[in-house]
Fold:
Amino acid sequence: MEIKTATQRLSALAQEGRLFVFRELVKAGPNGLAAGDIAKAVGVAANTLSAQLNILSHAGLIQSRREGRSIIYSIQYHHMSELLVYLVKDCCQGHEDICGPLSDMTTKMACC
Amino acid sequence: MEIKTATQRLSALAQEGRLFVFRELVKAGPNGLAAGDIAKAVGVAANTLSAQLNILSHAGLIQSRREGRSIIYSIQYHHMSELLVYLVKDCCQGHEDICGPLSDMTTKMACC
DNA sequence: TCCATAATTCAACGATAGTTGAAATAAATG
DNA sequence: CATTTATTTCAACTATCGTTGAATTATGGA
Structure:
């Protein structure tokens, strides 16, 4: 993964409104949520939300599909996971004992 | 974890220079690196690096200690892991089958 | 004590980001 | 085909960010 891609994705998440939307979509799971439903849940103007979704979308963190007159947004799990892996990559450089501090994280993340 | 804390940490990482520094420190491991050594490795002015380290530090992603006339920076693993966990939290809400897309991530992250 | 090295602080500048209101597009319904 | 609903686009404005140069603090050695 390129560092530019990583910063683009992190920037997309680095704002309260967008992070909140992102987490709503994480909670919603693979089925996703319609833009209008997100706007209601988050309590933000439609055009503001549209801009937020657009940024998350261009960063590759979410994707959209049309269903009737709604547009449904959902997480792009592969890209999300790519980003998280990027942040811990090379943390031990082959020396397994070096990054003990991170080892309990993987167990905490093993929610499924 | 509060959403404000999360956005602060993500903002700190959401810039190429700071992300590069952060990853150098991830590679360096718990012993960390002196500010001067980072500046040489990254090829950035001392004051620019200082500002970058300051932002990462205030975000809680790194910590510093003095050793002689050098100041050594290193990753705050606990806070780093807290952030990553926050991003995937509530991804399945008890339904184990929902977030299969994320399940292979934890294995990829199990570097140690 | 004086000097060199290591790193930070401060002010200022240009660049970029976030929100808002108004207008536009797209699809479904009568 | 006109209307309603859902969402996006555009332009404009303010606020915040990132880097730079100059000055400052802190430590170790001659």
User: Anything to note?
Assistant: DSSP finds six helices and three strands in chain B. The CA atoms of residues 91 and 101 of chain B lie 10 Å apart. Residues 3-109 of chain B form a domain with the Arc Repressor Mutant, subunit A fold (CATH 1.10.10.10).
